[in-house]
Write a structure and sequence with these properties.
By secondary structure, the protein is an alpha/beta fold. The chain has 7 helices and 11 strands.
Length: 229
């Protein structure tokens, strides 16, 4: 445990730093936060340094991969988030691990980002007969990918099943509505506020304390068995 500024009632929630070097990200100087400030974070790079509340992304990615494999797809391709993002790297490693655990081929991932245009660009590379299922780094990437596949004459999910991550409000209004891994951002935020309040009240901070927020696979119309089934 480390002392914090219990008397002042001051605190801060760090929702996302996403710096590739956790040692750098974990320094109070880099975050420009006073050392006495009560801090809680949801950023995976800061786990172990500050109390944290973060989504169980590993379980969420596993559920997405399992869903596609259980539908009958031989493997699952992946459009990643940015290479310098801890969250993106966790999603990528979880995707790889689950395919390996289920003894399935691990395709070369398409390096992307967090924006729809990243999925749109990836669509050109993934327009191949062997690609029948794609897990995208987030819902925005999935949106761009679906648009590109449509422009290339491929139908989702008849030709390619697509899954996103986050469950943005727009996901249910896409054509087709997007299957995605729901991350409860509201619950994570509220839990971080509670962690800050606990530090202010107790005057100490346990950097090892980590609360995992469950994720949930939301199955909509963008996934289906491959055409051969």
């Amino acid at each position: 445990s480390a002392p914090t500024n219990a008397g002042s009632g001051a605190g801060s929630v760090v929702a996302g730093v996403d710096i590739g070097d956790p040692e750098l990200a974990a320094t109070v100087e880099h975050l420009a936060l006073p050392p006495s400030l009560a801090i809680a974070s949801s950023d995976s790079a800061l786990v172990g340094y500050y109390p944290s509340a973060s989504a169980d992304q590993v379980h969420g990615v596993y559920a997405a991969v399992d869903h596609l494999l259980d539908l009958g797809h031989r493997t699952v391709h992946h459009v990643t988030g940015p290479s310098d993002s801890q969250s993106a790297l966790l999603r990528r490693s979880s995707w790889r691990s689950r395919l390996e655990q289920r003894n399935r081929p691990v395709p070369e991932p398409v390096i992307g980002g967090w924006e729809a245009r990243d999925g749109y660009r990836a669509g050109l590379e993934l327009s191949r007969p062997d690609v029948t299922a794609v897990l995208c780094a987030n819902d925005e990437v999935a949106t761009g990918l679906i648009r590109r596949l449509h422009e290339q004459g491929q139908v989702v999910p008849r030709d390619v099943s697509v899954i996103g991550i986050d469950d943005l409000a727009v996901s249910t209004f896409l054509t087709p509505p997007l299957t995605t891994v729901r991350i409860d951002f509201h619950r994570a935020g509220a839990t971080m506020v509670d962690l800050v309040a606990e530090q202010i009240e107790s005057g100490t901070a346990d950097g090892s304390r980590r609360i995992m927020i469950p994720t949930e696979l939301i199955v909509r119309a963008s996934t289906a068995p491959p055409k051969s089934h």
